[in-house]
Design a protein that fits this description.
5 copies of one chain form a homopentamer.
Chain A: E1 2-11, E2 14-15, E3 24-30, E4 36-45, E5 54-59, E6 76-81, E7 84-87, E8 90-94
Parallel strand pairs in A: 4-6
Antiparallel strand pairs in A: 1-3, 1-5, 3-4, 5-6, 7-8
Chain lengths: ~100, ~100, ~100, ~100, ~100
């Protein structure tokens, strides 16, 4: 799984039936401190994530293994909200209050 | 999922049976403003997208989870037409009239 | 799917049973004019493609969704022969006679 | 599969039900001497790996083919702890005591 | 599929049950002459390959479509030993005696 920052959202009226009612968030992969890098992707939120959250995303067929995305044409899903990351004994990211 | 711009189309008379009748569009990945970058890929359209549309594409096995692509040898499908994208509170892309 | 040029072939006497009788072609990804770039891959041909053909390839599990590759250890298959490509209203590739 | 070094861990209280009770480790891909390079990813541990271990990771749907990850939204799993690596007749990595 | 050179082997005593008894080889992707480039990966051998062999590897779910890897947490398998490669009418690689 990859660590990503939720940076925005996408609106698409015309879309596959199985995507209706799904929240489409824009995410960017981050380093282990939650700093974004790389390009913007569209992820289906399955855990109530919002803008500014550092999240755990899954790609590929794994993105369809959540209650909300089962069998939908989805290849990127948010499956966790990161509280903290620790690297080599140092806390590199902690979710704000 | 990735944001992409529809830039053209491909014609292939000889192709897998399950691809017959499918619209093959050429797409290029875009940034969050709809500006294309990267190489041209072939995607099966499942939502009536056309040239110039900024769309949402899914890759891998997810591309076979639409009504039109079920069980077909397809690894890239267009599953939504983007109306607008918003990043950090700013609208970065809005579909023209 | 990706556009690719068939540049050669591979011979492997010792191989998985399910690959026996399959034509293994060497392909290179191309741009939208059929000019190759990137590294050489091995693809299973399923449509009678030959050297010099610009083809449509599928990767991943999609490569096993053809009559010839069902359930075989294959992650790249040729599923179409390109007749023409059109980008922004211009024909960028047309198959020779 | 890829060789990776376990560099830390992630805590996420809010996450998909099927991830509860799973140890989420931070890993970085290494070269054949166990030296890390590339970005930090989140992997589910299935073999009791700990920080400092050089491990074998699997990606994609394979990450769900372990007892601990079956059908969970997981795309990266640790499936082995490396004792030693040998390249061209030379031991390039050996696990410390 | 990709062409790769077998450069070594990995030993892992602690590993997923379904990997026990499997030969774990280190491979590096090659160009069409069998010259390695890119990083070292761990592949499960399914055809009796050995060090120095130029082989055909499959990634992703395809790596589980062999007799030896069925349903195992494996994302890279060796499924053929290359005898020769031919590009643009020239033999670019031929297996030694």
């Amino acid at each position: 799984m990859k660590i990503a920052l939720v940076v925005g959202s996408a609106v698409a009226t015309i879309k596959d039936d199985k995507l209706h009612g799904r929240k489409l968030l824009l995410v960017r992969k981050t380093d282990d401190s939650g700093n974004p890098s790389g390009s913007t992707r569209v992820a289906v939120d399955t855990v109530g994530a919002g803008k500014g959250d550092v999240v755990i995303t899954v790609e590929g067929s794994a993105a369809r293994r959540t209650f909300d995305t089962l069998d939908a044409p989805v290849d990127l899903a948010i499956v966790g909200i990161v509280d903290s990351l620790e690297v080599e004994g140092t806390v590199t990211f902690r979710k704000g209050p």
